[in-house]
């Protein structure tokens, strides 16, 4: 869910690796970010709506990745995918590291580009380590 730069890169890579991929976004214009070779499905809709997730194939999904701009939207859709549709592998992006920690305690796999970026930059500086 989410076809910004990150979502499009993930979808393109999974598609190249032979996975069946459905990309869900509120804005059909975002699909322009997908590689020309993308052979997956594109669905327009709100991932916080169970009917939209159902139509996008959540019930049969092996994985669900939420990478929209909104932490709360990502969390809600990830919970729907996991709890309602039984998706086993769910990853939820959270820009706010504190929210990521909370969501993690609630049982979700989370990824924070804020934390990862800070760690990468600190690793590049002499005499610095992770924060």
What does the model show?
The chain is an alpha/beta fold. The chain has a single domain, classed as Rossmann fold (3-Layer(aba) Sandwich), CATH 3.40.50.720. Helices cover 40% and strands 15% of the residues. The radius of gyration is 15 Å and the shape is globular.
Provide a short characterization of the protein structure.
The protein is an alpha/beta fold and 131 residues long. It has 5 helices and 5 strands.
Largest sheet: 3 strands, parallel
> What strand line-up does the widest sheet have?
3-4-5
Q: How many E strands?
A: 5
> What coarse outline follows from CA principal-axis ratios?
globular
Strand content: 15-25%
Helix fraction bin: 40-55%
**Mean pLDDT rating:** 94
Q: For this structure, what is the CATH class?
A: Alpha Beta
Structural class: alpha/beta
Count of DSSP helices? Answer: 5
Cα radius of gyration in angstroms: 15 Å
CATH architecture: 3-Layer(aba) Sandwich
Here the CATH topology equals: Rossmann fold
Element layout with pairings:
Elements: H1 5-16, E1 22-25, E2 41-44, H2 50-55, E3 63-66, H3 71-84, E4 89-93, H4 97-105, E5 109-111, H5 113-124
Parallel strand pairs: 1-2, 3-4, 4-5
What descriptive keywords fit this protein?
single chain, two-stranded parallel ribbon, 131 residues, 5 strands, Rossmann fold, alpha/beta
């Amino acid at each position: 869910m989410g076809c910004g730069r990150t979502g499009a890169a993930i979808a393109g890579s999974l598609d190249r690796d032979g996975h069946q991929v459905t990309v869900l976004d509120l804005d059909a214009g975002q699909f322009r970010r997908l590689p020309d070779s993308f052979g997956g499905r594109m669905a327009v809709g709100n991932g916080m709506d169970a009917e939209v997730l159902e139509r996008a194939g959540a019930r049969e999904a092996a994985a669900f990745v939420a990478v929209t701009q909104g932490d709360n939207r990502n969390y809600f859709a990830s919970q729907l995918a996991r709890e309602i549709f039984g998706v086993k592998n769910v990853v939820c992006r959270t820009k706010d590291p504190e929210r990521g920690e909370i969501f993690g305690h609630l049982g979700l796999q989370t990824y924070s580009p804020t934390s990862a970026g800070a760690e990468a930059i600190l690793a590049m500086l002499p005499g610095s380590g992770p924060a």
